[in-house]
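ESCALATION

Customer reports they have been waiting on this structure for their group meeting. Please prioritize. Original submission:
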Amino acid sequence: MAEQQKTIRFKIRRQDGPDKQSRWEEFDIPY
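Update from on-call: job pushed to the front of the queue and completed.
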């Protein structure tokens, strides 16, 4: 029987510069 793979989700707010629009990026990291 296969083990269930666990993942952790990172949600990162990125902004290219002080006057630029920010955006959210999500990453699922298996562990």
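Sent to customer with the following note: Strands lie at 7-15, 22-30.
Escalation resolved.
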